[in-house]
Specification:
Blueprint: E1 9-18, H1 23-34, E2 38-47, E3 58-59, H2 67-80, H3 82-91, H4 95-114, E4 119-122, H5 126-138, E5 142-146, H6 149-153, H7 158-164, E6 167-170, H8 173-183, H9 185-188, E7 191-193, E8 214-219, H10 228-240, E9 247-250, H11 256-265, E10 272-275, H12 283-288, E11 290-295, H13 310-317, E12 322-325, E13 341-343, H14 348-359, H15 362-379, H16 382-398
Parallel strand pairs: 1-2, 1-4, 2-3, 4-5, 5-6, 6-7, 8-9, 8-11, 9-10, 11-12, 12-13
Helix pairs in contact: 1-16, 2-3, 2-4, 4-5, 10-11, 10-14
Length: 400
Amino acid sequence: MDQAPNDKKIAYILGNYPGKIETFVLNEMKELERIGVGVYVCPIHHIPVNGKGKVEFNPIYAEPFNLPGIILSHLSFMLARPVPYLRCLLINRSYGGKLVFWKSAYFARAIKKLGIQHIHAHFGWTAADSARVVSRLIGVPFSLSLHAADIYYLPDKLGRKLKEAKFVLTCVKNNKEYIRRTFGDSLADKVDVVYHGVDLETFSPRSVALGRAVDVLSIGNLVEKKGHCYLIEACGILKRKGISLRCLIIGEGPEKERLINIINELGLGGMVEIQPRRPQNELPQVYAGSKIFVLPSFITDKGDRDGIPNVLAEAMAMGLPVVTSDVPNISELIEHDKDGILVRQKDPEALAEAIERLLNDGKKRGAIGKMAREKVENEFDARKHIKRVAEVFLQHQTSN
C-alpha cells in the first residue's frame, strides 16, 4: 500500500475502474503519483481489463467479496452517525442510488481508516453522488471534476453538488462561464479551469518508414456528437469530384452500424474504413502514419457536446494539421487557419473543402502542423496542468 503522508493522499471516486476509465483521468492519477501524491481509487463499478483486474493504484473495492466489510461499515455508521446515515439513505432511494449508498459506506470507512483528508470525483453523476455520501458520513471534504455531458446534456442535481463541493475543476473556460450563467457567481467562483493536456513525450512528431498511408484519420467514440457521419459524407463529396483518398475512423460505439450503412450507401467501401479502438500506446504510430486529422464534433439537439477532445490535442502534439468544428470549447484549443482549421458544424461541404485544401497543399499542412505542436507545447502540456491540479488539491487540504 502507498506510504504517502496523510496530507498527500487523495481518494478518487470513479464510475468505472480499472476498465473503461477515461485516458485523461488515468494520466492525471499517474502524474499525481509521480509527484508524490498517494492515489486511492474507489470505483462504483469494478470493471476488469481483458478479463483481469489490472490495477495501477491503491484500489478500495466495495464488491461482493468484501460483503462482511460492507455490512460492518453500514452498522458502524448507523450506530455512530445515525442522522447523516439516515439522510444519505433517504437521498439515495432510487435503484442506482441504493448501489451508490451501499458501496459508499464501505468507501467512507476505508478512507477514514487510511487517514485520507480529501475526496475527488470525476464526472457529476454516480461518482459525485458517492463523494457526497462519503463526505457526509466522515466529514472529509470532496471536490469534483466536471467535463461536458455532465454539465450540458445530462446534469444530475448539479446545483446541489456544486454547492456542497469544496471546489470544482473543469477542462474548458466555457464550462465555467456556463455555470456562472446558470447557477450564479458564488458557485462559478468555486470553479478552477485546468486543461487536461497531452503527454508531450509520448505524442511527439516522428517519421514513419512506410510514409503516411492514411490521408484522413479520425479517432473517437462512435457517438452522435463526434459527427463522423459528416466526415463520411465529406468523403462522398470528394469521391464525386474524382478525388481518391483513404479515410480511417478508429472507435467503437452505438453509431457504428449507422455509419457503416452510410459508407455502403455512398459506395465508399474502398475509401472509408472503421477499425476497433486501439490501445493508447499504439496511437502515436497511428497518428504518425496519417496526413491530417479530422473530428467534426457538433452540439446535438439534446445539447450533448464535447469539451476539448483529447484526440485533437494529441494529433496537434504529433504535428498533424487538424480539421474540426467551430463550436464552443474546441475553439479554445484552435485558432482558425493558424494552428488548425475550423469549419461550420454539421457542414460536410465545408469539411470536404478543408480536407481537399490540406491534402493538395503539403506546405500548408506542414506549417499548420508546426504551429499546432507549438500551441500544445505552450498551453496544453499535461505535466504542467496536472501539477496545477495537485497544487489545487494540496492548497485546499491545507485550508481544511
